[in-house]
Write a structure and sequence with these properties.
- The protein is an all-alpha fold.
- The protein has a domain at about 155-260: Receptor-associated Protein, CATH 1.20.81.
- It has helices spanning about 1-20, 30-35, 55-75, 80-90, 95-120, 125-175, 180-190, 190-205, 210-220, 225-235, 240-300.
- Helix 5 packs antiparallel against helix 6, helix 6 crosses helix 7 and helix 9 (about 210-220) runs antiparallel to helix 10.
- The radius of gyration is 31 Å and the shape is flat.
Length: about 300
């Protein structure tokens, strides 16, 4: 009986604490809530999460998700920083939010694998594989999705870069400054380069120097052609014929794009011969095998 009263008292204490945590006069606001009115848009109406709200749960598991998922990604061979890849593709998620989402997907995969193991009752090795493979598969799916989006963005940026560099050369030769030329391309363009240049212009308006903003763009994009173009753009205040230098660099980038496209076409042309070769070899092997088998039968008889 005493144990029942102790359990009831603990349950009542937890319930009263949760109820009182929703009252403004009882619960102390967090530092984020106290600083919210002094931030841009902080006066907008927004409810403060309670003790067991979704926001508090995310805040609680965010450090664990960040550390655990980073270690798992390193073990699986992912060396590039997740924050760089998310910034490269202009994702709405930051690294912490993406890791929390990845942790949730892994937990869901674990639940699906455990339910499948309980329902099918396979042998022990297969059951362990289902339980361990569910969260790992969910983790890898999200990681692979980000990696593929990052590679596609780099490829599109590399293909658009000669056109954008040529436009920059024309604008600078026409008398535009580097900042105004970048703003014009960012306002009129719609591709990957235009979005990246818009971020460069935004960083310049925030107080960063043009050269530093361009170098930051190159570090995020990690495209070899852009690494060669940014040092030329950094000569804006030192070279008087920057348009001619950009034109020469544009021709070099265009030759590199043409070389890679030619290499890709040749590789696809070689892949075409694989099914043709297989389709030719199989009938030839059959025609050679028939007299060989007949000869073996004759000698054995």
């Amino acid at each position: 009986m005493s144990r029942l009263w102790v359990a009831a008292g603990l349950a009542g204490w937890v319930g009263v604490t949760l109820l009182l945590s929703q009252l403004r006069w009882f619960s102390r606001p967090s530092l984020v809530e106290r600083l919210r009115p002094y931030t841009p848009g902080g006066l907008a109406p927004g409810g403060r999460g309670g003790l067991l709200s979704l926001e508090s749960f995310r805040d609680a598991i965010a450090p664990f998700s960040q550390v655990a998922c980073e270690r798992v990604a390193r073990l699986l061979g992912v060396s590039e920083d997740l924050d760089v890849r998310l910034r490269r593709i202009h994702s709405d998620y930051d690294a912490t939010a993406f890791r929390v989402r990845q942790t949730g997907a892994s937990l869901a995969g674990f639940g699906v694998g455990a339910l499948a193991a309980l329902a099918l009752r396979p042998p022990l090795p297969i059951g362990l594989l289902l339980i361990a493979g569910g969260p790992l598969l969910a983790f890898l799916l999200l990681e692979q999705r980000v990696a593929q989006a990052s590679e596609r963005w780099q490829r599109r940026l590399f293909l658009e870069l000669p056109v954008v560099a040529e436009q920059l050369a024309m604008l600078l030769s026409a008398g535009y400054s580097l900042t105004s030329a970048l703003n014009r391309i960012a306002a009129r363009g719609q591709g990957c380069c235009a979005r990246d240049i818009a971020r460069v212009c935004r960083r310049v308006r925030q107080g960063l120097a043009e050269q530093d903003a361009l170098r930051e763009w190159a570090e995020i994009a990690q495209v070899d052609a852009l690494d060669q173009l940014v040092p030329v753009l950094a000569l804006n205040r030192e070279a008087s014929d920057l348009g001619r230098l950009l034109s020469e660099e544009t021709r070099a980038i265009r030759r590199e794009v043409q070389r890679q496209l030619t290499e890709q076409l040749e590789r696809k042309a070689q892949q075409v011969w694989i099914p043709v070769t297989v389709a030719t070899l199989i009938p030839g092997v059959i025609l050679m095998a028939i007299p060989f088998v007949k000869a073996l039968q004759a000698f054995s008889g």
